[in-house]
Amino acid sequence: MIYTITLNPALDRTLWIQRVRDDVSNRILVEKSFAGGKSIDVSRVLKNLEMDSIALGFVGGFAGRELEGRLLNDGIQSDFIRVSGETRTNIIIHEKETGKQLAFNARGPEIMPSELMQFVEQLEALPCADMVAIGGSLPPGVSPEIYRRIITQVKKCQAKVVLDVDGDALCQGLKALPTVIKPNIHELSELVGRELKEMDEIVAAAREINHQGVEIVLVSMGARGILLVSHGREYHAAPPAVKVESTIGAGDSSVAGFIYGFMQGKDLKDCLIYAAAAGTATTLHQGTALCRKEDFLKIVPQVKLEVLSERV
After folding, report:
1. CB within 8 A of 30, min separation 6: which ones?
2. Known catalytic residues?
3. Domain containing 242: what range?
4. Number of domains in the chain
5. Is the pTM of this model over 0.85?
6. CATH at residue 117
Protein backbone atom coordinates (compact mmCIF):
# COMPACT_ATOMS: atom_id res chain seq x y z
CA MET A 1 0.00 0.00 0.00
CA ILE A 2 1.21 3.48 -0.92
CA TYR A 3 -0.08 6.63 0.78
CA THR A 4 0.64 10.12 -0.49
CA ILE A 5 0.26 13.06 1.89
CA THR A 6 -0.36 16.61 0.63
CA LEU A 7 -1.32 18.96 3.46
CA ASN A 8 -1.86 21.98 1.18
CA PRO A 9 -3.30 20.66 -2.11
CA ALA A 10 -4.51 22.96 -4.85
CA LEU A 11 -6.55 23.25 -7.96
CA ASP A 12 -4.11 24.30 -10.65
CA ARG A 13 -6.03 26.60 -13.00
CA THR A 14 -3.93 26.72 -16.16
CA LEU A 15 -4.41 29.40 -18.81
CA TRP A 16 -2.90 29.72 -22.27
CA ILE A 17 -2.72 33.19 -23.82
CA GLN A 18 -0.83 34.59 -26.79
CA ARG A 19 1.18 37.01 -24.64
CA VAL A 20 0.62 39.04 -21.48
CA ARG A 21 0.23 42.69 -22.47
CA ASP A 22 -0.13 45.67 -20.12
CA ASP A 23 -3.29 47.76 -19.94
CA VAL A 24 -5.27 45.68 -22.44
CA SER A 25 -7.72 42.82 -22.16
CA ASN A 26 -5.70 39.58 -22.47
CA ARG A 27 -7.79 36.89 -24.14
CA ILE A 28 -7.60 33.34 -22.80
CA LEU A 29 -7.10 30.84 -25.63
CA VAL A 30 -7.39 27.63 -23.60
CA GLU A 31 -8.24 27.02 -19.95
CA LYS A 32 -7.89 23.78 -17.96
CA SER A 33 -7.91 22.78 -14.29
CA PHE A 34 -5.95 19.97 -12.64
CA ALA A 35 -5.75 18.48 -9.15
CA GLY A 36 -2.39 19.69 -7.84
CA GLY A 37 0.04 19.60 -4.96
CA LYS A 38 3.33 17.72 -4.73
CA SER A 39 2.20 14.34 -3.44
CA ILE A 40 -1.08 14.50 -5.36
CA ASP A 41 1.12 14.77 -8.45
CA VAL A 42 2.91 11.64 -7.23
CA SER A 43 -0.42 9.80 -7.01
CA ARG A 44 -1.38 10.96 -10.50
CA VAL A 45 1.88 9.78 -12.05
CA LEU A 46 1.75 6.45 -10.22
CA LYS A 47 -1.75 5.95 -11.61
CA ASN A 48 -0.51 6.72 -15.12
CA LEU A 49 2.14 4.04 -14.53
CA GLU A 50 -0.63 1.65 -13.38
CA MET A 51 0.30 1.67 -9.68
CA ASP A 52 -2.36 2.52 -7.07
CA SER A 53 -2.06 4.83 -4.09
CA ILE A 54 -4.34 6.62 -1.62
CA ALA A 55 -4.10 10.42 -1.36
CA LEU A 56 -4.41 12.00 2.10
CA GLY A 57 -4.45 15.59 3.35
CA PHE A 58 -6.88 18.49 3.80
CA VAL A 59 -9.55 19.77 1.42
CA GLY A 60 -12.35 22.28 1.85
CA GLY A 61 -15.07 24.19 0.05
CA PHE A 62 -16.09 24.00 -3.59
CA ALA A 63 -12.49 23.83 -4.82
CA GLY A 64 -11.85 20.92 -2.47
CA ARG A 65 -14.84 19.02 -3.81
CA GLU A 66 -13.70 19.66 -7.37
CA LEU A 67 -10.22 18.41 -6.52
CA GLU A 68 -11.66 15.20 -5.04
CA GLY A 69 -13.89 14.75 -8.07
CA ARG A 70 -10.99 15.15 -10.48
CA LEU A 71 -9.00 12.53 -8.59
CA LEU A 72 -12.01 10.23 -8.64
CA ASN A 73 -12.34 10.64 -12.40
CA ASP A 74 -8.65 9.78 -12.70
CA GLY A 75 -9.21 6.56 -10.75
CA ILE A 76 -7.23 7.75 -7.71
CA GLN A 77 -8.46 6.88 -4.23
CA SER A 78 -8.46 9.64 -1.63
CA ASP A 79 -9.37 10.01 2.03
CA PHE A 80 -9.05 13.70 2.82
CA ILE A 81 -9.95 15.51 6.03
CA ARG A 82 -12.56 18.14 5.21
CA VAL A 83 -11.82 21.59 6.67
CA SER A 84 -13.81 24.78 7.10
CA GLY A 85 -11.62 26.83 4.74
CA GLU A 86 -11.44 26.72 0.94
CA THR A 87 -8.81 24.67 -0.88
CA ARG A 88 -6.47 27.06 -2.68
CA THR A 89 -6.45 27.68 -6.42
CA ASN A 90 -3.13 28.32 -8.14
CA ILE A 91 -2.96 30.25 -11.41
CA ILE A 92 -0.52 29.15 -14.11
CA ILE A 93 -0.19 31.21 -17.29
CA HIS A 94 1.51 29.99 -20.45
CA GLU A 95 2.51 32.54 -23.10
CA LYS A 96 2.33 30.83 -26.48
CA GLU A 97 4.31 33.55 -28.21
CA THR A 98 7.33 33.47 -25.86
CA GLY A 99 7.06 30.04 -24.26
CA LYS A 100 7.25 31.68 -20.83
CA GLN A 101 5.36 30.26 -17.88
CA LEU A 102 4.09 32.27 -14.91
CA ALA A 103 2.86 30.60 -11.72
CA PHE A 104 0.91 32.30 -8.90
CA ASN A 105 0.58 30.03 -5.87
CA ALA A 106 -1.99 30.81 -3.17
CA ARG A 107 -1.30 30.35 0.56
CA GLY A 108 -4.12 27.92 1.23
CA PRO A 109 -6.78 27.75 3.96
CA GLU A 110 -5.93 28.09 7.63
CA ILE A 111 -6.15 24.70 9.36
CA MET A 112 -7.78 24.78 12.78
CA PRO A 113 -6.12 22.81 15.63
CA SER A 114 -9.14 20.49 15.81
CA GLU A 115 -8.83 19.75 12.08
CA LEU A 116 -5.14 19.06 12.47
CA MET A 117 -5.82 16.59 15.28
CA GLN A 118 -8.46 14.90 13.14
CA PHE A 119 -5.74 14.25 10.57
CA VAL A 120 -3.34 12.95 13.25
CA GLU A 121 -6.01 10.57 14.55
CA GLN A 122 -6.70 9.37 11.00
CA LEU A 123 -2.98 8.75 10.53
CA GLU A 124 -2.75 6.73 13.73
CA ALA A 125 -5.68 4.53 12.65
CA LEU A 126 -4.46 3.83 9.09
CA PRO A 127 -3.53 0.29 8.05
CA CYS A 128 0.23 -0.12 7.73
CA ALA A 129 1.74 1.15 4.50
CA ASP A 130 4.70 -0.07 2.45
CA MET A 131 5.53 3.43 1.21
CA VAL A 132 4.50 6.97 2.22
CA ALA A 133 5.28 10.00 0.05
CA ILE A 134 5.08 13.37 1.82
CA GLY A 135 5.44 16.61 -0.08
CA GLY A 136 4.50 20.22 -0.54
CA SER A 137 4.03 23.43 1.36
CA LEU A 138 2.30 23.75 4.72
CA PRO A 139 -1.05 25.53 4.99
CA PRO A 140 -1.43 28.37 7.50
CA GLY A 141 -2.00 27.10 11.01
CA VAL A 142 0.24 24.03 10.69
CA SER A 143 3.74 23.90 12.17
CA PRO A 144 6.65 22.18 10.38
CA GLU A 145 6.68 19.84 13.40
CA ILE A 146 3.82 17.94 11.73
CA TYR A 147 6.25 16.32 9.29
CA ARG A 148 8.30 14.83 12.13
CA ARG A 149 5.07 13.57 13.69
CA ILE A 150 3.88 11.99 10.42
CA ILE A 151 7.20 10.26 9.72
CA THR A 152 7.52 8.96 13.26
CA GLN A 153 4.01 7.52 13.10
CA VAL A 154 4.24 5.75 9.74
CA LYS A 155 7.68 4.32 10.54
CA LYS A 156 6.12 2.37 13.42
CA CYS A 157 4.90 -0.02 10.73
CA GLN A 158 8.33 -0.11 9.03
CA ALA A 159 7.02 1.96 6.11
CA LYS A 160 9.52 3.56 3.77
CA VAL A 161 9.13 7.36 3.68
CA VAL A 162 9.95 9.78 0.85
CA LEU A 163 10.06 13.42 2.01
CA ASP A 164 9.97 16.22 -0.59
CA VAL A 165 9.73 19.51 1.29
CA ASP A 166 12.07 22.44 1.95
CA GLY A 167 13.14 24.97 4.57
CA ASP A 168 12.08 24.47 8.18
CA ALA A 169 9.75 21.64 7.16
CA LEU A 170 12.71 19.68 5.78
CA CYS A 171 14.80 20.36 8.88
CA GLN A 172 12.02 19.13 11.17
CA GLY A 173 11.26 16.12 9.00
CA LEU A 174 14.91 15.07 8.97
CA LYS A 175 14.79 14.63 12.75
CA ALA A 176 12.53 11.59 12.20
CA LEU A 177 14.92 10.13 9.59
CA PRO A 178 12.86 9.59 6.44
CA THR A 179 14.13 6.90 4.07
CA VAL A 180 14.51 9.27 1.12
CA ILE A 181 14.69 13.03 0.69
CA LYS A 182 14.63 14.84 -2.67
CA PRO A 183 16.02 18.37 -2.43
CA ASN A 184 17.13 20.42 -5.41
CA ILE A 185 20.62 21.97 -5.35
CA HIS A 186 19.39 25.20 -3.72
CA GLU A 187 17.48 23.32 -1.00
CA LEU A 188 20.47 21.06 -0.30
CA SER A 189 22.71 24.14 -0.11
CA GLU A 190 20.40 25.65 2.52
CA LEU A 191 20.36 22.38 4.42
CA VAL A 192 24.15 22.10 4.74
CA GLY A 193 24.73 25.84 5.07
CA ARG A 194 26.97 26.46 2.05
CA GLU A 195 26.66 27.11 -1.67
CA LEU A 196 26.91 24.03 -3.87
CA LYS A 197 27.81 24.18 -7.55
CA GLU A 198 30.16 21.43 -8.65
CA MET A 199 29.24 17.74 -8.67
CA ASP A 200 31.81 16.79 -6.02
CA GLU A 201 30.42 19.48 -3.71
CA ILE A 202 26.87 18.20 -4.18
CA VAL A 203 27.94 14.59 -3.59
CA ALA A 204 29.80 15.54 -0.40
CA ALA A 205 26.75 17.39 0.93
CA ALA A 206 24.50 14.41 0.19
CA ARG A 207 26.94 12.14 2.04
CA GLU A 208 26.59 14.38 5.10
CA ILE A 209 22.83 13.76 5.08
CA ASN A 210 23.47 10.00 4.73
CA HIS A 211 25.66 10.17 7.84
CA GLN A 212 22.79 11.78 9.74
CA GLY A 213 20.73 8.63 9.13
CA VAL A 214 18.84 9.31 5.88
CA GLU A 215 19.27 6.22 3.71
CA ILE A 216 18.89 7.80 0.25
CA VAL A 217 19.43 11.37 -0.93
CA LEU A 218 18.06 12.24 -4.37
CA VAL A 219 19.21 15.62 -5.66
CA SER A 220 17.31 17.07 -8.61
CA MET A 221 19.53 19.21 -10.81
CA GLY A 222 17.18 20.33 -13.57
CA ALA A 223 18.55 19.70 -17.03
CA ARG A 224 21.71 18.23 -15.47
CA GLY A 225 19.71 15.24 -14.28
CA ILE A 226 19.38 13.56 -10.88
CA LEU A 227 21.99 12.44 -8.37
CA LEU A 228 21.51 9.53 -5.94
CA VAL A 229 23.75 9.06 -2.90
CA SER A 230 23.23 6.14 -0.51
CA HIS A 231 26.05 5.06 1.81
CA GLY A 232 28.78 4.52 -0.77
CA ARG A 233 26.54 4.04 -3.79
CA GLU A 234 26.62 7.21 -5.85
CA TYR A 235 24.95 7.45 -9.25
CA HIS A 236 24.09 10.22 -11.67
CA ALA A 237 21.30 9.90 -14.24
CA ALA A 238 21.21 12.26 -17.23
CA PRO A 239 17.98 12.34 -19.26
CA PRO A 240 17.91 12.83 -23.03
CA ALA A 241 17.46 16.32 -24.46
CA VAL A 242 13.78 16.99 -25.20
CA LYS A 243 11.59 19.92 -26.18
CA VAL A 244 10.32 21.19 -22.84
CA GLU A 245 6.68 22.33 -22.83
CA SER A 246 6.29 22.74 -19.06
CA THR A 247 8.39 22.03 -15.96
CA ILE A 248 5.44 22.03 -13.55
CA GLY A 249 5.27 18.72 -11.69
CA ALA A 250 8.56 17.39 -13.12
CA GLY A 251 10.19 17.00 -9.70
CA ASP A 252 7.09 15.33 -8.29
CA SER A 253 7.06 12.99 -11.27
CA SER A 254 10.66 12.03 -10.50
CA VAL A 255 9.60 11.05 -6.99
CA ALA A 256 6.82 8.91 -8.48
CA GLY A 257 9.24 7.27 -10.91
CA PHE A 258 11.59 6.40 -8.06
CA ILE A 259 8.74 4.94 -6.01
CA TYR A 260 7.50 2.98 -9.04
CA GLY A 261 10.87 1.26 -9.32
CA PHE A 262 11.34 0.82 -5.57
CA MET A 263 7.95 -0.85 -5.12
CA GLN A 264 8.82 -3.33 -7.86
CA GLY A 265 12.01 -4.31 -6.06
CA LYS A 266 14.33 -2.69 -8.60
CA ASP A 267 17.88 -1.82 -7.58
CA LEU A 268 18.80 1.80 -6.90
CA LYS A 269 20.29 2.28 -10.38
CA ASP A 270 17.00 1.37 -12.06
CA CYS A 271 15.01 3.43 -9.54
CA LEU A 272 17.14 6.45 -10.43
CA ILE A 273 16.70 5.84 -14.16
CA TYR A 274 12.93 5.64 -13.64
CA ALA A 275 13.02 8.90 -11.67
CA ALA A 276 14.87 10.70 -14.46
CA ALA A 277 12.59 9.25 -17.14
CA ALA A 278 9.36 10.14 -15.32
CA GLY A 279 10.46 13.71 -14.67
CA THR A 280 11.50 14.18 -18.27
CA ALA A 281 8.28 12.63 -19.60
CA THR A 282 6.27 15.25 -17.69
CA THR A 283 8.12 18.13 -19.38
CA LEU A 284 6.83 16.99 -22.78
CA HIS A 285 3.29 18.21 -22.05
CA GLN A 286 1.76 21.58 -21.30
CA GLY A 287 -0.03 22.49 -18.10
CA THR A 288 -0.07 20.06 -15.21
CA ALA A 289 -0.53 17.09 -17.52
CA LEU A 290 1.93 14.69 -15.93
CA CYS A 291 4.09 11.78 -17.11
CA ARG A 292 2.37 9.37 -19.50
CA LYS A 293 3.41 5.74 -19.48
CA GLU A 294 4.13 5.56 -23.21
CA ASP A 295 6.52 8.54 -22.95
CA PHE A 296 8.11 7.10 -19.82
CA LEU A 297 8.80 3.76 -21.50
CA LYS A 298 10.37 5.49 -24.53
CA ILE A 299 12.66 7.63 -22.38
CA VAL A 300 13.86 4.93 -19.93
CA PRO A 301 16.39 3.37 -22.37
CA GLN A 302 17.65 6.84 -23.33
CA VAL A 303 18.66 7.83 -19.78
CA LYS A 304 22.43 7.73 -19.31
CA LEU A 305 23.55 6.36 -15.93
CA GLU A 306 27.00 7.19 -14.57
CA VAL A 307 28.39 5.24 -11.63
CA LEU A 308 30.32 7.71 -9.48
CA SER A 309 31.06 5.24 -6.68
CA GLU A 310 29.99 1.79 -5.47
CA ARG A 311 31.67 1.36 -2.10
CA VAL A 312 29.33 -1.13 -0.39
Report:
1. 15, 16
2. 252
3. 180-213+215-312
4. 2
5. yes
6. 3.40.1190.20
